[in-house]
Sequence to fold (970 residues):
Amino acid sequence: MSDPILSVKDLRVEFATRSGPLRAIDGVSFDLNKGEVLGFVGESGAGKSLTGTAVIGLIDPPGKITGGEIRLEGRRIDHLSIEELRRIRGREIGMIFQDPLTSLDPLMRIGDQLIETIITHVAVSRTEARARAVKLLEDVGIPAAAERVMSYPHEFSGGMRQRVVIALALAAEPKVIIADEPTTALDVSVQAQIIALLKKLTSERGMAVMLITHDMGVIAQIANRVAVMYSGRIVEIGPVADVVRQPAHPYSMGLMGSIPSLHAEHARLKQIPGSMPRLTALPAGCAFSPRCERADARCKVERPALAATGMTTSACFHPVTSTVAEVAG
Amino acid sequence: MVDSLIKAPRSRLMLRLDAIRDSHLFYSFTRSWIVMVAAFFALLIVAAAALAPLIAPSNPLDLASLDLMNARIPPRWLENGDPQFLLGTDDQGRDLLSALLYGAQVSIGVALLSTVLAILIGVTVGLIAGYYGGIIDTVIMRLTDVQLTFPAILTALLVNGATRAILGDRQIQGSEFWILVVSIALAFWVKYARVVRASTLQERNKDYVHAARLIGVKSWKIIVHHILPNVLGPVTIIGTISLALAIITEATLSFLGVGLPPSHPSLGTLVQVGNEFLMSGEWWIVFFPGIVLAGLALSVNIVGDWLRDALNPKLR
Amino acid sequence: MLAFLIRRLFEAALVMIVVAIVAFTLFRFVGDPVSQMVSQDATIAQREALKAELGLNDPLIVQCAHFIWKSLHFDFGISYKFREPVVNLLGQRMPATLELAAIASLFAIGIGIPLGVYTGINRDSLLTRVIMAGSLIGVSLPTFLIGILLIYLFAVTLHWLPSYGRGETTSFFGLWQTGLLTSGGLRALVLPAVTLGLFQLTLVMRLVRSEMMEVLRTDYIRFGRARGLTNRAIYFAHALKNTLVPVITVIGVEIGTLIAFSIITETVFQWPGMGLLFIQSVQFADIPIMAAYLLLSAVIFVTLNLVVDILYMLIDPRIRVAVRA
Fold:
């Protein structure tokens, strides 16, 4: 296999508070390959968005990357100067945010926002940038793109605005896109269109995508692999089909159990009892142990590391590979 | 797994951290000691002003005691200073320290009384507009709109001028104090009226007021017993903040020569009188009233700001 | 958009009518037009004749309409004190006040906005703390004290700048005396303009700062950063522009306040403008001048409000749409 385009090793992000640092991301590692879509799922506060923000170098104080390394095509980018990092953003790594209604500057024509982004990164004339902007809008499926470049954001619907946001993120042709809940704020019917668009763009352009979402349905549709996050850690990572069908970590299993399915035998969706611990009160061992049926004394004191468990890689002393395989089989 | 609140866990976390830093750390380290000093200074001046007749070396209002031979003596620690006059004397031979103490008393008195009067007018009008609504409300609110088009100082000056015209020169003598109180009150009542009207509208539509009306409780009883207590909170806060503004307005009017006369000076009058001697080098005549006025306005402002933030952040 | 403008104009007219009625009341009832125009020993018959001639026996509504009609033709009556038409007095002094207010606004905006942007971006830097502490003092000190302090420092002690008056002025066709064309006139402007503009400067600065901090937290700024836009583009093309709507509102209102506060500044610096004339009219109960000044300032404030409304529409495309709908 070729070298990964993005490689994150043992990433740690902390927030300085008066009562000491809060560790919001704790030892996250993953590789993202060219043309791959890697999904990140988990509850609110699990650290998925923060991981994306850390990769693109946009964590605001008092948050800070306090450990680990982030490599883009083998080059470390977590210790770059502010200016070097800025050049990478948009050009090498792009990001799409959740809410298209608030992601666009309301006072600037979308064409100008596109042109501004293109000129920032690529040495082209304004005329050329303008032509590119129209082309981008066409690519993301905006009808009558040549006229719509003159429009203001409020003149578009939510779904169209998210297309504009995607066009903006793609403006300087980055190699990696971090899509942070790209469909959450949209109507269900529009969600499908945006997913289809993302899928089309990734395959056409060979971009790698970090897809952050709480929606397993979205993951199942376009991701190649998926990482399940819990309390700032990756608890399981593997090919989507395997994680969905044969999750090894009890948390992933609970997560999959809570997805509605058309041909499910269970009448009720399963719930995971309790809620994710707060960052101020993380248990010493496995963060999931207080909610876990399978937890024993060891889970409470020792933190499990990621290791191959059946089809996927998970961080659990008591993975559930066999049982689920039997049930599924 | 429906977590529509998922939006951005980090931003929510960070907002909380911001709030902690903004409220506690930032506050206690940079703000509270300033507030303490300001409160202490304000209280000191208020106490000294209140006790002026007891602690002042002489009575500056007693014109018979003045001696022009003592005019323009510099403060005691300077060359030619006179131990009898700690802060020196003005052009009338008046002891500056005594004039300051009495002047502060007048300034604070005007500020307090005008604020109370403004609150009385504003609360009454606001209650009526909010409670009765309809055409009364519309007319009153339109009029407040018009008044708000004008800066308060201009309103105060116009009221002041009109009152002077009505009273005529002779009757003005001796009533300057009350003309000032009324001018300032009429310049500032609008904001109370608006706040009270808004809260009254809210209260009026609550169930207990409907119930009280239903069983035939008289309107004024409902207003006084049920609505008034609920609107007094914000009014008190705005009143405190406005005190600094009232002090400044009084000083400004007196400085402009339409406030208190030099025979019965406030801090603003003292500055106005002293200003004439700035060029000739007798800086102390304007310096001491100026510094007391500035310190008073600044410290009352700081305490007012703090009070607003501490009690009701929504009033920003 | 037209409907919106018409509604605004209607509201402005309403304000003007109320102000005109107040001015009329002042003019007619507070002042006594007759006794000011006849000599002390005029007979009652002479007074009555003058009263009839002035139309003071007409119904009030007619008198009021007459007053407004004359005001529209710049006839504000005769000053009691100066025995001259009020319009001439105001006309002579208007250039001084307008020039002072204009320079003070430039000073307040030209320094207030950059300081607000700086302190909004560098929220906790040492310089920000110093500026914010200074601005608290600027907000709290009475204008006249600041003026006196500046005079003492720069005129009395350092002898750098004149302490009163307009200095040398140049005349335009005998209509407009300007101090902007001579070095003496410009030097005389410095202290009064700084005194007058300081309060507005701190207000503008504090507002721009809080708006900047607000806007810098928005998603579109984060998205701009995620696209690698330069700080300059983020701060100026996006953030500052988005703070402008509230900032312009306040600036519009504050320019009006500035004209009112010029009364104080003109008194401190003996600046021969409308403010100084007005304060003399208050001291001497010179009602015609007060009434005219009231009308004139209402016109200025209402016009400023209209200009602000129009600027809104030029800046914010959303308002244009909301207005059209």
Remarks:
- The domain at 6-223 of chain A is CATH 3.40.50.300 (Rossmann fold).
